[in-house]
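Most newcomers find our protein records easier to grasp once they have seen one. A learned vocabulary of local backbone shapes supplies the integers on the structure line. An example says more than a description, so a record of this kind follows:
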Amino acid sequence: MMDSRLKLIQDWLLQLLAEMTVSDPDGNEHEVFLVDIEVHSNKTIDIIEVFADTDSGISVENCKFLSKHISAELDASEEMQALLPRHFKLVVSSPGLSRPLTMNRQYKKNIGRLMQVTYQNADGEIKTIDGRFISLEEEAEASITLDITKIQKSKPNAKPKPPELVTIPFSQIQKAIVQVEF
């Protein structure tokens, strides 16, 4: 697919989702935001994958609602019909844990979780570290802070280690992925 076509579809979806809200089981409304869109084409069909979220997470029911709404709007839009002249398949889902974080909103909702961050340090070296994401700085130079203190099984009467904190500016982050904890 041409990049300009993808950009037009993405802009259209951003505008469509800009004012969208979904409800949680308690009836509270949550603003939807678009995390990413991927469009794949094969010989007979275009596949549009929409990765959406809310600040409090997104449910399967929310994704089903969004899918129906987006599909109806795509079908009704002459602009989208021109960009998608053949059959398309729409897939709406959460970004999931395997996708890197790309937006401040995603970072905010993951404070306190384990993360793996790949970044370029001041010397130009690419480093990957694991740590507990403890803070997000959005003022001045945006950055995240991780506690990279190794979690070790406690020995009786052992002194806990002081936290070892690493602050990484957003401009140096290449990939940040939330880790699954059991």
In short: The chain has two domains: 3-93, 104-151+158-178. The longest helix spans residues 60-76. The mean pLDDT is 87. Helices lie at 3-17, 60-76, 78-83, 104-108.
